[in-house]
Write the structure tokens for this entry.
Amino acid sequence: MDRVSGGAVALVAVVGLVGTTAGCGGGGAVAEDRRGGDPVGAVRRAADVVVRAGSSGDVRTAMEMAAGGTRVTIHGTGGYDFRGKTGKLKVMLPTGPPGQQEHRPMVEVFVPGALFMKNRGAGVPADKWVRIETGSLADGNLVTGGATDPMAAVELLRGARDVSYVGEEGGELLHYRGVTDLATAVRAASAELRGPLRAAEKGFSRKSVAFDAYLDDLGRMRKVRYQFNFQNAGKAVAVTSTTALGGFGRPVRVVLPPAKDIYAGKIGQ
């Protein structure tokens, strides 16, 4: 496992597990899928197909962390406008021990180059938002917010290599497995995503991340699962980040927090 410096804001504050991030490799041999196509090409094209679809009104995320025998899962739901590269998720944080005050759902708004978070905790007033420059994060917001930015999850597939066709999933989806090369993904990504992905490329010790991708018959990415492994305070931490898309073409309205509601004070860890 590898180490990279940089804070994982939401995960440190809420879960207390993650302080540094790193990537992992893996993959299988290239093979042809049931349509006789090229697996690498099919996965890489999925990003363009999703963007052409315009939006996903049903985005579901799950981030599962395992460290030292402890397993924590964070779920998110919302929508994303892939043409405008903006989205909104409500992220459900893990429940604490009985009798402990439950966390409010964290609201996240994604815009090119930035992440807005409400109910962030760590000393931030409940009615205020925090604005984070994603290009300043060591992981480019692949793990930091407790949910991988859906646009980043899609764009990472542009760096796919060593892809194998696994088989059909439920008779509807085509399952592919491989690794995504961060440097290739940066070069192929849209201009708005290059900054965060370049930060991840520089921050991760290994430059490839293992994935499982599920495409429908139209070539759209319906689900992708990335595997991250790293060290935090001498402990091995494994993170599985899953992004599922549905409701393609459904309008998604994203409203930015007003400037007066952005918290400018000190944020605790």
